[in-house]
Amino acid sequence: MLYGLGFIGLFTIGGLTGLFLACLGLDIHLHDTYFVVAHFHYIMVGGAIMGYLGGIHYWWPKITGRLYPEFLARIAAIVLFIGFNLTFFPQFILGYLGMPRRYPRLSAGIPGAERDVHSGRFHPRARLFIADDLSDLVHALRPGRG
Questions:
Q1: Burial 28-65 (b: 16+ CB within 10 A, else e)
Q2: pLDDT tens per residue, range 71-96
Q3: pTM here?
Q4: CA 27, CA 34: separation in Å to the nearest integer?
Q5: How many other CB atoms are found less than 10 A from the CB of residue 89?
Q6: I need a labelling partner for 127 at 20 to 30 A (CA). Which of 12, 46, 75, 87 fits?
Q7: What letter would DSSP give residue 142?
């Protein structure tokens, strides 16, 4: 359920930012900036990953007949949602401020750009929770309690 709610939240944010990109006056300003990158990630990555993991967690007990640790799955869903937003939401702000994409160094004219982009560095730890969660799913295939 948490993965489904996360999917709805991330896909909605991505969809609403698509309205800004559809408006000609704003698209001229936002074209080829980090705003487009953040929009793409919210739609494609946020929608796909959260939906995929939600489907796996829903169907896993039905396919295998084995249960997985639900508490760890909830922690993984929450950490993934928070880590995803910490990683990609600052890109909306930087894109609105005019930071172009495909540049190897951050724009010196935007104060706090380095801090904003690296605020999601907690996200690699989120990957550990997801990897642990997926390993728990594989572990649930072992004989024993199910």
A1: eebeebbbbbbbbbbbeebbebbbebbebbeebeeeee
A2: 888 888 888 888 888 888 888 888 88
A3: 0.77
A4: 12
A5: 16
A6: 12
A7: S
